[in-house]
Amino acid sequence: MLEDRPCQVTRGYLKNCGRKHCWDCLKCQRIKIEELNGKQPLAIDVVEEEHGANNLPLQLEGDLSMPPVHQSDDQQQAVNDPDFDHEEDEDMESDVLSDNQHQTESDLDLDLEEDELNLLHNLMENDLSLAPVIDVEKYDQGGNKMLKLSENDRSMRASDQSDDPNMDALIHGIGRDNSISCLLRSSRSDYGSIAAVSKAFNSLVKNGELYRLRRQIGMVEHWVYICCDLPEWEAFDPNLCRWMHLPPMTAYEYFSYGDKESLAVGSQLLVFGKEYLSNIIHKYSLLTNSWSTGMSMNFPRCLFGSASMGEMAILAGGCDSGGAILNNAEMYNAETGIWKPLPNMNKKRKMCSGVFMDGKFYVIGGIGVTSLIPLSCGEEFDLETETWTEIPDMSPVRISYVPQVSEAPPLVAVVDNELYAADHAAMVVRKYVKNSREWISLGKLPERASSVSGWGLAFRACGNRLICIGGPRSALGGGFVEVNSWKPSEGGPPRWNLLSRKQSPSFVYNCAVMGC
């Protein structure tokens, strides 16, 4: 590896108190060198022999990092005349040194490390701005608003810096707040690479600060998490159409073959099931990319209805470990890890579904206590008053007459505060009209979205689009999983777009959508 050649600099050459890699004498040796048969040409040696080692470095051909230093007549005299009286010009040299040092220190603010410069370049390619993302504190010299973090964010930053004195640096030259503003607008699929840049970036990604700020400004990306073969889980990015493998879950055989529910809340993926006679929750953390157990609800249950909104999720109904149908509910806060009991529903129900719509939580369908006939009513939970209200005829219309005990829970999803349902028997998509409380047909499901009485078919909201995941199965086992997408805002009947198709040993057991 080539190294910088040493050179001597006379007193006439301006001093610099900057960092070593910013010394002017070293910068003047950065030249363009063309490779000749893999070797460095010896043109530099010729130049040095002609001009001497004690002279100032000349401005060689190529793109130098800085222009040559302009010298005054007295300075030029000092170079040419060794007997020049330097004491007479001491004050002048000190003033020039001070100005030069001030300019150099200013230049150091924009001196980016190579990795950070590449990162910033990639961010700018995505047309990212350094606009404010939370509160406005002040304006910079260019008239741009600067980012202001909350006191909690600043206290977390201070705790992060206690272990690493360079934590506040991030992208040198633009400041920590603007660095965070850039990262908030980058894709979360790049956060793994960003965390590998330095300890500062790694800590920023793992402490959850980025995801929390992204939710505050509405910069949320939705990924789909599916399980087709326990203990393996995969994540699918619908924006890049890319699959990613999660670490395998440590689960016993009883858990693998029992009933399971999944729920994504905040930056966590929760998988509920049973281990022998007790209920268990497996939690995957996006921040640490690992699974853990040990969490427990106030009322352990399975076959319940659930939905999440940001860091908060609500679970309602289901069965206890003894098979009794429940009407109680509870709320989970992913940030604090606290489970809070909620008032009981009006009806007991299991195998129901849950959604958030217009800021309220809804439980739809399910099986009651007295009959296997599906419940046609739904229930609305008001988060402000913490009360339940029964809503008649909210369960999707079903043409199928298969007993509910062997049929999947209602396949429902909410996009832009509108409720949609997938009728697996008729292979159509329906929409709920709030004013008239009726369901209308919009169009067909994807042709190859096959299922067994609704099992193996996933119908989820993913941001501003509906996602339908299913695929054809072969008689000998195995088959394909296809991910189809449709945006209801486009209007008209559904026009499904095939995002991805891959082989799968089985159909979709569990599916959840995480927005971060």
Keywords:
disordered N terminus, alpha+beta, four-stranded antiparallel sheet
Task: Describe the fold and architecture.
- The structure is a single chain.
- With 516 residues, the protein is of the alpha+beta class.
- The chain has 4 domains: 20-108, no CATH class; 114-216, no CATH class; 223-249 and 411-516, no CATH class; 256-395, Neuraminidase.
- It has helices at residues 24-27, 43-51, 73-80, 90-108, 114-125, 151-161, 175-184, 191-195, 199-206, 209-217, 253-257, and strands at residues 135-139, 145-148, 222-229, 232-237, 242-245, 261-265, 268-275, 278-285, 290-292, 305-309, 312-316, 329-333, 338-342, 353-357, 360-364, 378-382, 387-391, 412-415, 418-423, 428-433, 438-444, 458-462, 465-470, 479-486, 497-504, 510-515.
- The strands form 7 sheets. It has a 4-stranded antiparallel beta sheet, with no helix packed on it.
- The chain starts with 23 loop residues before the first helix and ends with a strand.
Lay out the secondary structure.
Layout lengths: L23 H4 L15 H9 L21 H8 L9 H19 L5 H12 L9 E5 L5 E4 L2 H11 L13 H10 L6 H5 L3 H8 L2 H9 L4 E8 L2 E6 L4 E4 L7 H5 L3 E5 L2 E8 L2 E8 L4 E3 L12 E5 L2 E5 L12 E5 L4 E5 L10 E5 L2 E5 L13 E5 L4 E5 L20 E4 L2 E6 L4 E6 L4 E7 L13 E5 L2 E6 L8 E8 L10 E8 L5 E6 L1
Antiparallel strand pairs: 1-2, 3-4, 3-26, 4-5, 6-7, 7-8, 8-9, 10-11, 11-12, 12-13, 14-15, 15-16, 16-17, 18-19, 19-20, 20-21, 22-23, 23-24, 24-25
